[in-house]
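Hello Y.,

Per our agreement to keep a running log of every chain we model this quarter, I'm adding this entry. I've kept the format consistent with earlier entries: sequence first, then predicted structure.
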Amino acid sequence: MRHHKSNQQLAGFQALPGLENGLAANVLELVQVTGFIRDLACELSVTQSFINLADTNIEAVYSFPIPHNAVLLDLTATIGDRELRGKIKAKKNAEIRYEQAILAGDQAILLEEADDGVYTISLGNLMPGERVILSYQYACLLYWRQDTVKFRLPTTMAPRYGDPGSAGFQPHQVPVFSIMADNRFSLQLSVQGLLATAELESPSHAIGIQRQAESVEIGLSEPRAVMDRDFVLNMKLPSGNKSAGLLMWDSKASHMTALASFCVDIPTEAIPKLCLKIVVDCSASMCGIAMRQAQLGLLCVLDNLRGTDSFNLLQFGAEHHALFPHCVDVTPRSLRYARQAVLNLAAEMGGTEIGAALDYLYTLSDAGHRAKTVLLITDGQTYQHRDVVNAARNSGHRIFTIGVGAAAAHGFINDLAEKTGGACEIVTPLEPMAEAILRQFRRMFQARAIQAKLIWPETVAWQAPQNIAPLFSGDTLHVFAGLGAQACGGVELIMLLDDGREIRQHVELRAADERFPALSRVAAEQRIKGVSAKLATQLAKDYCLLSQYTHILLVDKRKTADQARQPPKLVQIPQLLAAGWGGTGGAWEPEAYYSPRSTSGTPYSDPVLISTYHELESFDPEDFCQLPSYESLSPLVCKPGTTKQAILIQVSKAKGQWLREFLDIALFYLHPSLQEIFAELQTLGGWSAKEAATAFLFVFAKDIGFATDNKMLEREFQGIEKYGILLDFVQSILQEDAEADFRRVIMSAPRKNCYE
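Predicted structure for the entry above:
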């Protein structure tokens, strides 16, 4: 038992992956997710099946994530042929009642909020062979980011750095992790309303799409997916009315609850000067895919800086280092120096001491007195995030955050941006980092709404949130209000920009009907954030909401003969370690890890055979160079039996998106001067992705000492002395035949063209 004062030592126990004291730790059988997205409202039902495979009664404890800003609504449990519903109780009362039930030998289930977006379920006195099926529901609102709405379903968490106790976590709430956990989930999602006509794709999972008359049904291509990354669904809709208003009668408060949702439209007017302080997380958790994403993004940042700007680059882990002693002007020399520093970044700086790094960053001076702006790239895994956010709010800096990785801490990096007047972007592994960077740059360089107020059609009983954070064009603002019973009409948003302009937008309120049944309860949760603890507790009870002041408790009183005779053994159910976290994880599985689908459900192109980042870094390049082209690279690549030659040939046959992904990865292994050549070829020379990839394959083959049984071809590579001459030759060949593939271009290369 983990709440009772006499069991503190047991409460501190964290189960090791695999077996705990001979007890099977795979108590979690399956997770099933179903729900709908209707316009910008989302409601989901999650079913978790638990079974005790041990020969003694246990207390199973499982911490799990839900989406940032989601509102957890209800909990039911199916035990045998009986269904029981949980009740909302004040936090302390719920804990005492839970312990009493356990001591009495009854079964008790407690659901509590551990942190923003992190919840812990405790199943006390789960008997040998007994199965309990829990079902909980939650609702959340989605947000436009320019022309795209992103739905994110977290399935696991990444380990956090720091002291969980100082962050308010109880010992039993601290998640445990295992690379051996066999946690899996299924998904069925219905998209209705405005977004039913959107272009849909998932950068995280292979999905199946079925379009119906008024909805789109989405499911995983495989029956069950491994819970090692967030499920992400991007819904792109370039045109259409993206602002809306809803009204619903609230029987508990005897008034109308209104929701005004604005997609903010601010005419662009660039900020003339900017002091950009770039911060990149180089802690151990960023190793692998996350670090490569960060490097790609940082190169894009440097390419977009203007001559009127200044900048600096800070990398941090357990310690921190700035590239320059102060912020420097953007010049060709400073950019070259910064690009080389970016290419040398490595996730080898220990823990995530983000607070100390940002405190130092705030002191870096800028001679030009430009607008102080921070771009932070991190996976955000730290327990001390509240202290970091409070310090950032007082620093005078706007912070724009980009979260990377398969399970980024969305709540922390979103709060850090929101509380400082910046904005947040989350980039899933293998999503285009450049697009997120460019969106952040558009926000940095444009005017923003520093003040905003809403004019409702009648007197307002309450509004949530009361204070509106700064807004950027293309972002979404959701505001709730309590209105009179006869409320109707429209809502006007008045925004004052930081350049003195005033912008107005208008939406009409309409009956919610069945479009968002949980509207009043989600509104109540928003009100809880801005009131006293006493009033917040009462609101949570009135609207049956799980909060930091309330828990959900369910007690199953058993017959005397069925009661437990001894205290239960504590078993903490492990999270599956997030894919790519700290450089861990297996080779890419293109159909499972990265198979973006068009709305027709067909893949964009064939998968590229290439190894994971951390695997490329884990072996000696000299050994790779000496390996014959016909010898298998397994386990260095994702398919057994793949050779170097097969990699090059497969890439040469790829199209479109796969080629762009390949280029983003491959350019890291070129000399910096060659990277500049390729950048010029793609921008000034107008090369297509196929042309650039074909040229790169020449360089790649030469650079790694590509071996072949064809002696003539081998001599061709050995005779190439200048990359520039070769690239010019490839350009001329491809201008004549844009469809030329890798093998044809190589075999048709006249010797004199390469040597002259």
